Amino acid sequence: MNPPTYRVIDQNYLREPNEPLHRYLSAGNFVVLTDYAGMESHKGSALLNLRRSLEIVSKYPAQTVVLKNWYQICRITQRGSKHLRRLLIDSKTTDMFGQFCKQTYTLDDSVPSPALAELERKNREANQFFVDKVPYAQMVLDAIKMYNGAFPPEQLKLIRLGRYLDDEQLLSRMMNHIVMVASRMMRKNGYIVRRAAHAKNNYMFRWALAGYLLSMKWLSEGGYENLPIPKLQNDIIDMAYVAYATYFDGLLSNDNKMNEIYLLTKAFLGPS
Whole-model pTM? Predict the structure, then answer.
């Protein structure tokens, strides 16, 4: 009998109807919830969205793992460890997940209560979080424009086909770009990796890597100049899920782009 797998789940994959997710959980496997899934579930009509997102996993609370927030994870992953997966899990929140689901379905949004006040606070935080991410989308678009012209047509073809490893010069150029982007992101957010060997463990490095590979996909396929900012913003958030999934056994998503970038990111990272 194969051991159970732990896969990070895309927020949109949480919702009914989803027979594949039911089969996955019925087989004894685990889903991993990230802070991004939580924030996406709390935005807009928070109680309605949250109930829709919990509809399936609330039936399998013992197979639902909740991660610490990205700020904590960035600090944890600055150092090398053979036990990173275990360190990323918020044990207390995971243990209370079943109770949280019951509370969510019994909550009456017409009656003031501490639980409702907490939900409204999280709703405000989630909405503001996604507003704050808009400038990042413009930064990504500017970065893609900067890389335009850095690759000859034959290398763009390899990028489009996902065959980065077939050309040593291309691979070296891309790795230099990735390290530069990741270093800027880490410094901007106050994270310093003391040992180069630990860099690939850092969550921000993995997010930068996934984002870079996505930008290369846009660059090679063309048309990125016309991508609307909201679309860019959503894709950047998708790469956060991809980065989290690299610490676990995979990604649960119907988004072909996310699944493709996840596989490429894992290939770049190499063996754990």
Answer: 0.91
